[in-house]
Amino acid sequence: MKNLSEQSMKAVPLHLAMIMDGNGRWAEQRDLPRIIGHRKGVEAVRKVVDECLALGIRYLTLFAFSSENWGRPRQEVDALMLLLLDYLASQRQKMLDNGIRLQVIGDLSRMTATVQQAIAEAVQVTSAGTGLTLVLALSYGGRDEILRAVKRILAQVQAGNLDPERLDADTFAAGLDLAEMPAADLMIRTSGEMRLSNFLLWQSAYTELYFTDVLWPDFNLDELNKAFADYCQRRRRFGLTDDQLQI
Prior knowledge:
By secondary structure, the protein is α/β, with parallel strands linked by helices. The chain is built from nine helices and six strands; from the N terminus they run αβααβαβαβααββαα. It has one domain: Decaprenyl diphosphate synthase-like (Undecaprenyl pyrophosphate synthetase, 3-Layer(aba) Sandwich), CATH 3.40.1180.10.
């Protein structure tokens, strides 16, 4: 990245999470249909993925469609599913050429069979990728993820495979959707809203948060530079003191 020093580039996050907010508002401000904002948002996704790949960021998790988004007008939901299908098809070769491994988290049972099949195929064909792991959170909610993890643990206990007295944070986290990945180091949210909106609730306990007023379709590499520059100034203590960190 052009605006980051060599020292700062060493401090870019291992795992970046993003709440891509503001597509609809971007369109409404221009008296355009909301779907136009979502299409512009996909262009921003492509740019951010390219930059994260270039920087060597290992994990990028994008909040693409929440469990609450199912309550939106049917026409908008259907249009979003078509955009998803188009993204998976158009980016497939690019992911293969660049070693991008696609992962998807969330309750996919609510998706149509066509969408589920397209997701499964994209995940399978990119599974050997060793570069960036791109995670799409689809039909995802943090509370739902935690509840699903609890159900998995209860099933283990009932089957006699887990002693509840031995349950700890690591055992619980192993049942979450992102069990194979480190917690997000930095979470960026666009559009000026300052809340997690049910995203990665368990994993964000010590995630650095960055909020920007920029709407997602306008989020570009300069804005990403600003977020990373701010992140590089943070001192992550994880509950410890400065003196302890210097030992």
